[in-house]
């Protein structure tokens, strides 16, 4: 069983960081995993994304043609990746910055106002953490206790004081009232 | 009483292969004397260069590594960073130091590497047979400037010692000549200082030595030394351009 | 399933950098270029903390020669770069081979020719294996395929460089340099090599030592080059390395190097499930190349298909190894997005059904 995830957004939305948390969480769950970012000039200003491949077996390919699950934090990412999602796949959308449209009928949609929730919480930069919480509702492996450990692993020592803030933001995303399916 | 001996830092049966009248022999001898006098032979590593200076390891009984053309200062940097307790110097021609190797030479000075650079300036590429180089004088005829160096095509020669003196990491930079005995004595003093600043950890020590190339200049040794005095020194003035140990400055 | 209790997610570039530290690298010299810049960034702090040598070199020309200077003293030293800038280091590699110096060099490949761009490619196979320096020489080339191997083969590169006194290259690519994967460092597993017989330490209680390649005596130079090539034969005999999967009954063997290995193994599984007897082969050392093993395999295999992110470079070494005993084909894309498992499967089918020898995707 192999599954891949792409998380995408603006530079500054913490997309690579959130992707590392997803990768670490699956590693903690005993899966084989790879994390691969877009890199270089794209990182400076435009959209950023990274791909996480999770497998019970050896990961077959680090960068795949299509994708099981996309987490889109802005409209550009939604537009760019919607066509790459496998039939029966899923897109998790930040409805604060993405219009709630459903151009394909063969995939699942989850909309949640991640940036609005993060602003209410006190910091718009935590939208990425909210997105992990939203994802957690549909990915049973990514439960809160494993995400807590993963966040702890990814946060550098110098920013460990932000651990609980990050975890609380994830919990906001888990709150089912924020989601529209 | 013994009044003359070969420095310990020179190989016993070393025979210079430099052309008759070339000043390289004097310069190498000065280096060897200083290695003896400053008791450096056993801790010295030389980064040798390409040009007439290439065979230095035939004459000096010290550890040495050859460098590709122009890269002596990079190799010397590698040696010194790996073994900061060693005495490390380069001995290069003007083409090696100031043309193909100008970036390495300049950046070693800017990094304040504790290294000593010695550059033999004879206004030509000697080993390849006397071509126009970075220090060729305006008007000088070479095999690649047979009409004489002129600005429109060849631009101007570089004043190396002044250039190195401008680098903040340079502790000592001087230009000397070997055309007279007083100048030779001054040269040895300058070299000693360039060695000492390295030992004291003050930064980059550098000496440019104006030198003859009778073969390629098509001159006798005496005529060549006259040229140093009459043509080179006016363009490349002798002196100390930087000395961080001189408090009067 | 493997336990990850001792593993952490590590980026390929950082894996190489920290493995170099653990291998005892005393000096690093480098110049920034994407996609390997993290190696120099990481080591700038790490080497400073450890009081080891670090220089932001003024150019790759300087960087490789700084490594030459450092290793000439018996120290372990390394530089890292990418493709078009590794081109600048070719002169240094020729010198280091001639001077028999244990230089360690990392190439995290990007696209070429010329400036190319920063996305990954495998176009430097020739540059690494055949070199761009002058004269007869060979460097040792190791090609990691996973982040764990970025660690393991960096350890091995330092060991082989010392063991054979020969420049050794870790040939990675942008994908491997930028990706993260669970891996663990363990300990540097190799013995230290005594280099006291040749290292420059100052002429104390002995004659001065000169390390140089200038060869005025033609007879001596003939002997020196023969000596180098006897050494290269020994390296080939003792340290050629590869891995192979399902080759026992294979009619077709897919061959890839570096991070493409993962994809051909996956393609092999898909094709096996469809009833084709497909195996996979992957050289770990590109130089020396596992020529003999491929030649043996060719006795029982109909077809070898190399899968490369270039216009077909390793395929020619496979042809030399197979020496006409079997068909040798190529599936390739010049640069960029790695050939997917689906594309490789499709390419194999095209080659089998149409008899085409070249499936450029």
Describe the overall structure.
The complex is a heterotrimer of chains A (181), B (249) and C (361). Chain A has 181 residues and is an alpha/beta fold. Chain A has six helices and six strands. Chain A has one domain: Pyruvate-ferredoxin oxidoreductase, PFOR, domain III (Pyruvate-ferredoxin Oxidoreductase, domain 3), CATH 3.40.920.10. Chain A is 34% helix and 25% strand. Chain A has a six-stranded mixed sheet, with helices on both faces. In chain A, α2 links the parallel β4 and β5. The model of chain A has no long low-confidence stretch (mean pLDDT 93). By secondary structure, chain B is an alpha/beta fold. Chain C has 361 residues and is an alpha/beta fold. The relative contact order of chain C is 0.12.
Task: Give a quick set of tags describing it.
heterotrimer, B: 249 residues, alpha/beta, Rossmann fold, seven-stranded mixed β-sheet, 10 helices, 7 strands, 17% strand, globular, C: 361 residues, 2 domains, 16 strands, 40% helix, 19% strand
Low-confidence stretches of chain B: none
C-alpha-based Rg of chain C, rounded = 21 Å
The CATH homologous superfamily of the largest domain in chain C is named Thiamin diphosphate (ThDP)-binding fold, Pyr/PP domains
Order of helices and strands of chain C: EHEHEHEHHEHEHEHEEHEEHEEHEHEHE
Oligomerization category of the chains in this entry: heterotrimer
Q: What portion of the residues of chain C fall into strands of 2 or more residues?
A: 15-25%
Helix content class of chain C: 25-40%
Outline the fold blueprint.
The complex is a heterotrimer of chains A (181), B (249) and C (361).
Chain A: E1 2-10, H1 15-28, E2 32-37, E3 47-55, E4 67-72, H2 75-81, E5 85-94, E6 108-112, H3 114-121, H4 127-136, H5 144-154, H6 163-174
Parallel strand pairs in A: 1-4, 4-5, 5-6
Antiparallel strand pairs in A: 1-3, 2-3
Chain B: H1 24-37, E1 44-48, H2 56-59, E2 63-66, H3 72-82, E3 87-93, H4 94-100, H5 102-110, E4 116-121, H6 151-154, H7 160-165, E5 170-177, H8 181-199, E6 204-210, H9 214-217, H10 221-235, E7 239-243
Parallel strand pairs in B: 1-2, 1-3, 3-4, 4-6, 5-6
Antiparallel strand pairs in B: 5-7
Chain C: E1 8-11, H1 12-22, E2 27-30, H2 37-49, E3 53-56, H3 60-72, E4 77-81, H4 83-86, H5 90-98, E5 104-109, H6 125-129, E6 140-142, H7 147-164, E7 168-173, H8 174-178, E8 180-183, E9 210-211, H9 218-239, E10 242-245, E11 252-255, H10 261-273, E12 278-283, E13 285-287, H11 291-297, E14 303-308, H12 314-322, E15 327-332, H13 341-354, E16 358-360
Parallel strand pairs in C: 2-3, 2-4, 4-5, 5-7, 6-7, 11-12, 11-14, 14-15, 15-16
Antiparallel strand pairs in C: 1-8, 6-13, 10-12
Helix pairs in contact in C: 1-2, 1-7, 3-5, 10-13, 11-12
